[in-house]
Amino acid sequence: MEKMLGERREWVNDMRGRNLGKPPEDCKGFYDRKNAETPLSPEEEAERQAAEEEEAGAKGKKKEKKKAEKKKKGKKGKDDDDGKP
């Protein structure tokens, strides 16, 4: 118990050093730092990367579709000349 209390005090002092003397608002970061993700196997990594690429491709298609719709709409009913002599 005292060991953890000492670790937390050390962490708070470290955060104060990084944040110009301001202590952290909560100790959530202290507890979250120990909950690091476990490394993925090569198969899982490839699967995750493929899913990210697919998601990025879907977003890109949506953006392209919106741009095409905006170009279609354009400025309807307006002539090129301003009506000025």
From the structure above, extract its key features.
single chain, 85 residues, 3 helices, 0% strand, elongated
Please give a structural write-up:
The structure is a single chain. The protein is an all-alpha fold. It has one domain. The protein is built from three helices and no strands. The radius of gyration is 28 Å and the shape is elongated.
Q: Work out the count of structural domains.
A: 1
Shape: elongated
- The structural class is mainly alpha
Beta-strand portion reads under 5%
What is the ordering of alpha helices and beta strands?
A: HHH
Q: What is the first-to-last residue Cα distance?
A: 88 Å
Assembly type: single chain
The main sheet comes to: none
Mean pLDDT: 76
**Portion of residues in helices?**
55-70%
Total DSSP helices: 3
User: Rg to the nearest angstrom?
Assistant: 28 Å
Query: What's the β-strand tally?
Result: 0
Poorly predicted residue ranges: none
